[in-house]
Amino acid sequence: MALEKLRRRWEAALGPMLKIASNVSPITVTWVALPFGVAGGLLAMYAPNEASGGWWMLGAALMIGLAMIFDGLDGSLARAKGEVTRWGDYLDHTIDRILDSTWVVCLSASVFVNDLALGFAAALLTLLGSYMGTQAQAVAGTRNYRGFSRADRTVLTLLSLVIMGVMLLMNFSTSAVFPGPFDHINVNPLSIVVFISALGGVWTFFVRFKQAQGDIQAIDKADPLPQPAAKKQDE
Prior knowledge:
Elements: H1 7-13, H2 15-20, H3 26-46, H4 53-81, H5 86-109, H6 116-140, H7 150-169, H8 189-222, H9 228-234
C-alpha cells in the first residue's frame, strides 16, 4: 500500500522512456512484460544451491525488475498517446495475475523452499486479495488498492532475490527452519517472502472486502437496483 503512493513520482520519472517508446503500441509493451517476468521466475526456480546460484538469483531479480518497468510503462504510454482502452486495462490485469502466481510458485518450487503445495496456496491467497480489488472496480467503479499491494509484494520479492543471491555468492547460509508443520522449510529470504505473500493475501482479502462493503452499500442506498418482484406487485 505504501509503494502505491509513489505511482505519480514513478510516472513522472518515466518521461524520457515515454519519448523513446512513442512509436510503440502500449499493448505491445504490456505483452513484453510477460516473457521477462516468466524468465525471472524460472531463473529463481532452477537456481542451484551453490555459489553460482547467486548469479541466477541476481539474473532473476533483473528479469523481474525489467518486467515491472514494462508493466509501469504501458499505462503511462497509453495515457500519453491517448490510447487508453478497456482491452489494455484488462490485458494488463491479466498478465499481472499470471506473473504474481508464477513468481510465488517458482520461489516455492526452488531448492531453497522446496514446497510446491505452499507455493500454490500462497498463489491462491494472493489471487484472492487481487480479486477483491478488481471485483470492487467492476461493481463500484473504483479500484481498491488497500492492503498488501502488488507493488509491495514485488519489491519484497526483488529484495529477497538480491539478498539470496548475495548470500549464495558469499557462501552464507542459515540452519534455522520454520516451526510446526513447516519445519522442513529453511528460513531464508525466499521462504520468508512466500509466507509473507500468503499472509498478505489473507489480510488484503479482508481489508478490501470490508472497504468494498461500505462503498457498495453506500451506492445501493443512493441508487438502489430495480426490484423485479416489487415491479410485478405494482402491476
